[in-house]
Amino acid sequence: MKFADLHLHTHFSDGTFSPEELAGHGARLKFSALALTDHDSVEGCAPMAAACSAAGIEFIPGTELTAEFNDIEVHLLGYFLDIRNQTLLEEIARFQVVRQNRIRQMTARLNELGVPLAAEAVFALANCRSPGRPHVARALVQAGLVRNLDEAFERYLKKNRPAWVPKAKMSALEGIELIHRAGGVAVMAHPGLNRSDEIIPALVDAGLDGIECFHTKHSTTMSERYLEIADRHHLLVTGGSDCHGFSKGKPLIGTVKLPYEHVVALKAKAESRKAKPGPPPAAGA
Ligand code: AMP
Ligand code: ZN
Ligand code: FE
Ligand code: FE
Predict the structure, then answer these.
(1) From ligand 2's centre to the CA of 115, what distance in Å?
(2) What is the SS3 assignment for 50?
(3) How remote is the CA of residue 224 from the centroid of ligand 1, in Å?
């Protein structure tokens, strides 16, 4: 039986594994296919492709975009992306700047609270173009300003806590279009975490291709619910661990094993999309 993990992060965003380490875990766990879905980044895809190839694993280039629809946050996974697509790279670069500015705003808030963490310390620790709250949390631990990551989020970084700064997001409709323009397949990530099922029909109308039914944080009941929704809206089914490295001593990779038949369906969709390029850019765009 062949299986895949289609939701993984490396140190090119807020994961801690290198592509080589991640592919190593994939090989140890006997995965046939892995997708890399770093936040607002495709930079790790080339090294991950090489590492997977060396390990005899099929690789699917991807990303995870933070988007919103009607003020509801939705994470969009893009698969089989052309990682050299100019529009995709420009939009990603734009959101990386948004992330970097947000780190400066969060450290300024911390400083106002009397917590002396410099933005530069976060950038040095993150060492990537897509820094996020996990990097701020790790920098706080490293500087001895909190005891652990949970304390960093609970005291400062969780939504509505004093150092939390909302992130400017792209609209979900733009996100779907961006993924399609790059020849990719657009999938709604971990719907069970966002509790926003009411927006699914609108996203389907906007061209959403699939839904992540299997995820580490989905209960069996949740997965069943999203399988039903996928069936009702003729959506592709995906799944992944959302592994960010070691979590409480163990990596999450291996907790979700998506049957390979879903990768076959995803690939067929991407191929049909590449055979039929989208509309030309609007005049003057
Ligand atoms: P950001 O994209 O900068 O808003 O950071 C979001 C990331 O932070 C998520 O992908 C999670 O990995 C992590 N995260 C969010 N909330 C928590 C929490 N309460 N504890 C630990 N990690 C969290
Ligand atoms: Zn993350
Ligand atoms: Fe996510
Ligand atoms: Fe993720």
Answers:
(1) 24
(2) helix
(3) 25
Q: Is residue 184 predicted with pLDDT exceeding 50?
A: yes
**Distances from the Cα of 58 to the Cαs of 34, 147, 181, 234, 255, in angstroms?**
6, 40, 23, 26, 19
pLDDT band (50, 70, 90) for residue 231 = very high
Query: From the alpha carbon of 132, which atom of ligand 1 is closest?
Result: 3
Centre of ligand 4 from the C-alpha of residue 38, in Å = 7
> How far are the Cα atoms of 178, 199, 203, 205 from residue 173, in angstroms, in the given order?
9, 11, 7, 10
- What's the pLDDT tens digit per position in 115-174? 999 999 999 999 999 999 999 999 999 999 999 999 999 999 999 999 999 999 999 999
Would you say residue 285 has pLDDT above 60? no
Output the ligand 1 site: residues, CB below 6 A.
14, 39, 132-134, 149, 153, 158, 167, 244
pTM, two decimal places: 0.95
| DSSP code, position 66 | E
Closest approach atom of ligand 1 to CA 14? 12
- The answer to whether 64 and 37 have CB atoms below 8 angstroms apart is yes
Rounded Cα–Cα distance for residues 208 and 195 (Å): 17
**Gap between the Cα atoms of 63 and 276, Å rounded:** 22
- CA 39–ligand 2 middle distance (angstroms): 6
Q: Helix count (H) and strand count (E) of the chain?
A: 11, 11
